[in-house]
Amino acid sequence: MAEVMAYSKHYPICRGLLRPLTFIHSRECDSAGWSSSVARWAHNPEVVGSNPAPATITTMQSMQRSFVRNLDEHDVLKSYPSKFVNEYPHVCYLDGNSLGRLPKKTIDVINSFLTNEWGEKVVEGWTDWVDEAEHTGDLVGRSALGAESGQVLVLDTTSVNLYQLAVAAIKARPGRNTIIIDAANFPTDRYIMQGIAKQFGLNLVVIDNEDPRMSENELVTPELLQKYMSDDVALVSLQVVNYRSGCKQDIKGLTDVVRSYGALLLWDAAHAIGSVELDFDANGVDIAVGCTYKYGNSGPGSPAWMYVNKSVQHELQVPIQGWFAQENQFEMGPDFIRTTGMRGFQIASPSLLGLRSVQVAFQMIEEAGIGEIAKKCQTGTTLMVDLFDEWLEPLGFSLGTPRDPNLRGGHVALKHPDAEIIARAMRSDIKVIPDFRAPDVIRVAISPLTNTYEEIYEGFFRLKELVESKQYLNSTSADSRVR
Ligand SMILES: Cc1ncc(COP(=O)(O)O)c(C=O)c1O
Fold first, then answer.
1. How many domains does the chain have?
2. pLDDT tens for residues 180-201?
3. CA of residue 158 to ligand 1 center, whole Å
4. Ligand 1 mean position to 269 CA, how many Å?
5. What is the pLDDT of residues 127-181, one digit of tens each?
6. Can you tell me the distance from the alpha carbon of 281 to that of 292, in angstroms, rounded to the nearest whole number?
7. Pocket test for ligand 1, best of 97, 155, 164, 186 (most atoms within 8 A of CB)
8. pLDDT digits (tens, 9 = 90+) for 346-360
9. Is 91 a member of any domain?
């Protein structure tokens, strides 16, 4: 037990302790017989739901499983998974970095809003609702972004907010003609920057961090960025945690480089918020955007957020001058006069249903503490890396995520030439939910409030069996546009 305690405490920095146990586990699993095992997971929910050791598991395997269960027992966030809707406990949901689970409380809060607020008050409700984008922004800021009040709004989408702040930044740096982005940036970010470059006749410079000779795991180091900087750069845009590799960029180091050239760095923290400590104020961040539906657990299409540091609010004007940014909004005057503060960045009426979902989820994050959440991500991803070393590397996988827990967020990239069909078979045949990202990555995540460590262990165990047996080659193709 003492060893387990020490392991639990030090696991983020002491990787490899799992190795002797998993080695025996993996040998024993070889003789377990895959197809019967997959049938067990696919068709007998109770087996995993109640977590008994399957009949074929040996003493050493049980020890291994009990070892991971001990991590769960000592997890300070262990009360949280039961606060979320989980209709299928036999499913290992490792995709909370794509869409988080539904908090049970959200159902009550939304129902109450419908009946007691919208239903009852109708238009009178706007007296209470009108400033909720700002109030919810303050909550998101203090719970997850390390931001003091008056710097965050919850509104619109990450894509729209990115466009808004990118154009504002470029206009705030007249005479400069260059935008820098990285090749591994999220598609919407790249497409939006391509459009902005075309719209304003600017040069778009792309850091080729997909080339392993330039960068490891897509990391853009301050030294690498420095090579691209000049006095012609108006804007740099990067992700805090890269959507595919899961690498975490050096927020302060990179912000300092960009600022030293008098340019602005627009961070996309969609894959970071709710999994790492961002400390925007302390890191000197000027502008950032992100979503709330991943580790933020606020629901599909829930409103996004934008952060604008107080020190630059006065110099940034977003291109869409909506009526919510107007100084005396309800005087409905003839000309646009922008108000001060964060409301000056708001376009239009907030989505109240969306905001209420964000409030529930970020109150949970605030209560749990972003420090503990980030620690659980490090422990969970360390567990994944250890399981990868023991079970997956021998099967032809490679790791696309940094091994240093400080250099990653909540997900890990498992690379394999057959990644797309394996990811599909994981969903359909073994009830483990990852996602696939082209060209060869299976992403698996720990969402600290909704996953247990055992769920991760179990998901990796089933994946190992699936690939070892090559059963995934029999999987039928998906009929969805979504991958
Ligand atoms: C890093 C990143 N940026 C931007 C987006 C786009 O978000 P939205 O479709 O909400 O605008 C996503 C979506 O997953 C993302 O992962």
1. 2
2. 999 999 999 999 999 999 999 9
3. 6
4. 9
5. 999 999 999 999 999 999 999 999 999 999 999 999 999 999 999 999 999 999 9
6. 19
7. 186
8. 999 999 999 999 999
9. no
What residue owns the CA closest to ligand 1's atom 4?
A: 158
The pTM is what? 0.89
**Residue 190 sits in which domain range?**
105-368
Whether 409 shows a pLDDT value over 70: the answer reads yes
Q: Which of 457, 56, 98 is nearest to 295 (CA)?
A: 98
Tokens of 35: 């197809």
Do 346 and 402 share a domain, yes or no?
A: no
For the segment 237-254, the average pLDDT, to the nearest whole number, is 98
pLDDT for 63 beyond 80: no
Residue 414, φ and ψ in degrees, nearest 5: -105, 115
Q: Which of 418, 427, 423 is nearest to 396 (CA)?
A: 418
* Ligand 1 surroundings by CB, under 6 angstroms: 157-159, 186, 188-189, 239, 243, 268, 270-271, 291, 304
- Residue 124 region by backbone torsions, left for phi larger than 0, else alpha for psi between -120 and 50, else beta: alpha
Task: Ligand 1 pocket test: pick from 99, 291, 411 the residue with the most ligand atoms within 8 Å of its Cβ.
Answer: 291
Distance 159 CA to ligand 1 centre (A): 6
Beta carbons of 432 and 392 less than 8 angstroms apart: no
Assign residue 138 the CATH number of its domain.
3.40.640.10
